[in-house]
Write a structure and sequence with these properties.
Helices cover 73% and strands 0% of the residues. By secondary structure, it is mostly helical. The chain has one domain. Helix 1 packs across helix 11, helix 3 (72-89) packs antiparallel against helix 5 and helix 5 packs antiparallel against helix 6.
């Protein structure tokens, strides 16, 4: 009897995780969006938006009528973009919930993190707007730029832990010491790559409002812009949780975990509002020079 109950209990536990992990990611991500706006305001000597402004923005965007749809591919593109991050959340272990992290490690997660940019390219490419096409080509170039150091960091971390399981990496750090102390060079390179993954300045050339009219977002209004807003919330959360899992030992409880991920995300957010954006070729040069060099030196120490 117990052998019949256990599989159903496991399935029920996974089903609960699959439901609540994306929901938690969404609401925590909204708080991160609010934090980004508050940081920007403080650095620019402004007051900043009210607490519920991210919720107001989503309601406003989804309540608007979408005047133009460029066909089925345009509709599917934004679903793929958001879906890539939702799929990523269930591979990121958090306090009390592992989702399917024990069935898919950091390699699978790395592939999932490429899906949002590809989904956005799919939808924007259907619009045939030159500003959107320029923006999405820059966005894919940016993905190529930060993916190289990111994959090198992932390889180094997996080599050090002798595992590709995020759960195993977290358990190791909680039993010994955080990865940021054992692999400081890889942690530094990972933080650099994180800046690019979040798509914030100085690596924000694919948006460039004064040059290409916000690029990929130029044909995104109403529900499409709302989808991109939701995607940004997931993006911030995913970046913070991933770095915390790799280098800061995850979290034993939610207060500790939230403190870590908000601290991690606040660093690139602060940098974003202090530096101007790079051109595409400058972004490639910087990303393929400093974080790659630091990550390779870090791998040398690990091996």
């Amino acid at each position: 009897m117990n052998s019949l109950i256990n599989p159903f209990a496991d399935l029920a536990s996974i089903a609960v995780d699959l439901l609540f992990m994306p929901l938690i990611a969404f609401f925590v991500g909204l708080l991160m969006v609010l934090m980004m706006r508050k940081l920007s305001a403080r650095l620019q000597r402004r007051i900043g938006p009210p607490f519920f402004q991210p919720i107001y923005d989503i309601v406003k965007l989804y309540s608007k009528s979408t005047q133009v749809s460029h066909g089925l591919i345009h509709e599917i593109g934004i679903v793929v973009a958001v879906g890539g991050y939702i799929a990523s959340e269930i591979l990121l272990p958090v306090p009390g919930m592992d989702g399917i992290a024990d069935r898919g490690g950091i390699i699978t997660l790395s592939y999932f993190l490429m899906i949002p940019s590809l989904g956005m390219a799919l939808g924007v490419g259907q619009c045939a707007n030159p500003n959107g096409s320029i923006g999405i080509s820059r966005a894919l170039t940016a993905m190529l730029a930060y993916d190289i150091p990111f994959i090198i960091v992932v390889f180094g971390v997996a080599t050090h832990y002798q595992s590709t399981s995020l759960i195993g990496m977290i358990d190791y750090q909680q039993a010994h010491q955080w990865g940021i102390f054992e692999m400081p060079l890889l942690a530094a390179a990972g933080l650099f790559a994180l800046q690019g993954m979040m798509g914030k300045q100085p690596f924000e050339i694919y948006v460039a409002p004064a040059e290409i009219a916000t690029g990929p977002m130029v044909e995104m209004s109403g529900k499409f812009m709302g989808g991109l807003f939701v995607m940004q919330s997931f993006q911030f959360y995913t970046a913070g949780v991933l770095y915390t899992s790799l280098f800061l030992g995850g979290g034993n409880n939610w207060p500790e975990f939230l403190l870590k991920i908000f601290l991690v995300v606040s660093i690139p957010m602060t940098i974003a509002f202090l530096f101007p954006r790079y051109r595409t070729e400058d972004m490639l040069r910087v990303m393929w020079k400093w974080p790659v060099m630091v990550a390779l030196i870090g791998i040398a120490f690990v091996m």
